[in-house]
Structure formats: structure tokens, C-alpha cells
Design brief:
Elements: H1 9-31, E1 36-42, H2 46-61, E2 65-71, H3 77-88, E3 95-98, H4 108-114, H5 126-134, H6 142-155, E4 162-166, H7 173-182, E5 186-190, H8 197-202
Helix pairs in contact: 6-7
């Protein structure tokens, strides 16, 4: 008999939004500051359009400032880097998110590296990746962070548990494994070359 159980991510999301909304209200009342998120999207990728719209809605729902910069697919790398620099120096913007994928003529690594690490809310900058790897505080990619939050809410203390992470991307797989290690899990990373993945997941 399977011991797997579904986690209600929607309910957890609603709880988190309520907590963030309260925190934003306290910041406004105590410091007279409104957190600001700038999202940059280049081109018309349909999935990216949905993600960006959702991020804007959730940000505003929590009472934060939400700026969306929509650039044409023909936008050059220099123009995009200039916008990132402008946002880095904008005191009203506390978080910057450049939606991936970018058009093929733009070097995504160069753009992500240009973001101020302290405003890199995606956690993709090499500085934040390094902080995570060595256990220092930093900004963490949202998908693995959300997974850890759900697991801890559902299971409590994760110490000593076996965890299999399927995927080794810089965006999800690797940071997920590092977060699990930080919780003292025993972590196995599986990927496209892993032999007998179903058996591994059942162990």
C-alpha cells in the first residue's frame, strides 16, 4: 500500500499570502516603506506572460508595489542591461525578477549576473547560489524554497529523512538538494541519466 499523500499547495499559498500581507502592512506602519518588485519580460512567450501576470497580481494583492517592464523580443542585450542597472539603483525597487527564457540573442547569464544580489529575488545570481551552497543567508529560488516550506509544514522536522530530488537544474534541482541538506536530510539527486529511477524513488 502506498504511503504517499497529497499536499494542499493552494491552501498553503493562501496562508502565505495572508502572512506576507500582514508583514507588508507592518512595514508600512512602522517604517513608512512599501516593498517594490520589478518584473522584466522580453518577448511574447505565452507561459512567461501567464507567470508575469500572476506575479503582478499576487504582489499587488499583498499590498506591495508591482512594476512590470514589457520589452519587445527584438530588444538588445545592452538595452536590457541598462534597464537592470536602472532598477538596481532605484531605491523604491527592492526586488528584481527577469523572466526566463530570454530571446536567443541575449546572454541570460550576463543579465542575471548584472542584477544586484540583494535584489535578486529569483536567487539565480552566482553570489546567492554560492551563499546557499555554503550555508550563508541569501535569496533562494522560489520553487525549491516553496517545496521546503510545504514539506516542513506537512512533516515537521526533516532531520534524517531520505530525499530523492529528480532533476539537477540550477533553478530547482541543485538548490532543492542544498536546502534538504541544510535540513539534515540524506539526499540523492536523480537526473536523465539515472538508472532505474522508479526503484530509486521507492527506496
Amino acid at each position: 500500500m502506498s504511503t504517499a499523500r497529497l499536499i494542499d499547495g493552494k491552501a498553503a499559498s493562501q496562508t502565505l499570502v495572508a502572512r506576507v500581507t500582514e508583514a507588508v502592512a507592518r512595514m508600512k506602519a512602522t517604517h513608512d516603506r512599501v516593498p517594490g518588485l520589478a518584473v522584466v519580460i522580453v518577448g511574447e512567450d505565452p507561459a512567461s506572460q501567464i507567470y508575469v501576470r500572476s506575479k503582478g497580481e499576487r504582489t499587488r494583492e499583498a499590498g506591495m508595489r508591482s512594476d512590470t517592464h514589457r520589452l519587445d523580443a527584438s530588444t538588445g542585450q545592452a538595452e536590457l542591461l541598462a534597464l537592470v542597472d536602472q532598477l538596481n539603483n532605484d531605491p523604491g525597487i527592492h526586488g528584481i525578477l527577469v523572466q526566463l527564457p530570454l530571446p536567443a540573442h541575449i546572454d541570460a547569464n550576463a543579465v542575471l549576473s548584472a542584477i544586484d544580489p540583494d535584489k535578486d529575488v529569483d536567487g539565480f545570481h552566482v553570489v546567492n547560489a554560492g551563499r546557499l551552497a555554503v550555508g550563508l543567508p541569501g535569496l533562494v529560488p522560489c520553487t525549491p524554497l516553496g517545496c521546503i516550506m510545504l514539506l516542513k509544514a506537512e512533516l515537521g522536522d526533516l532531520t534524517g529523512l531520505n530525499a530523492v530530488v529528480v532533476g539537477r537544474s540550477n533553478i530547482v534541482g541543485k538548490p532543492m538538494a542544498q536546502l534538504l541538506l541544510a535540513e539534515s536530510c540524506t539526499v540523492t539527486i536523480a537526473h536523465s541519466r539515472t538508472r532505474d529511477l522508479p526503484a530509486l524513488c521507492r527506496t
